[in-house]
Write a structure and sequence with these properties.
2 strands; 8% strand; binds zinc ion; 74% helix; 2 helices; mainly alpha; two-stranded antiparallel sheet
Length: 72
């Protein structure tokens, strides 16, 4: 009985223990969580670099919206 429970715990533990290291930071996450983490982590990393570019795009988008709104 204890053996079965132990085996089950070990097998489920094994599945949960599959950890993948993030490509953007040294942290490791479960194979289930790594995808969402890498997405947000890469966005975090890019934010600094693309901050100015993003601001430009945002300004352009706001400008376009204003023009559209103005036309109507
Ligand atoms: Zn990361």
């Amino acid at each position: 009985m204890a053996d079965k429970a132990q085996a089950r715990a070990a097998s489920s533990r094994h599945l949960n223990d599959v950890k993948v290291q993030c490509r953007h930071c040294p942290q490791s996450y479960s194979s289930r969580g790594i995808a969402s983490h890498e997405r947000s982590c890469s966005q975090k990393g890019q934010k600094k670099k693309e901050c100015k570019e993003f601001a430009k795009l945002a300004m352009r988008a706001i400008d376009a919206q204003r023009k559209e709104h103005h036309c109507e």
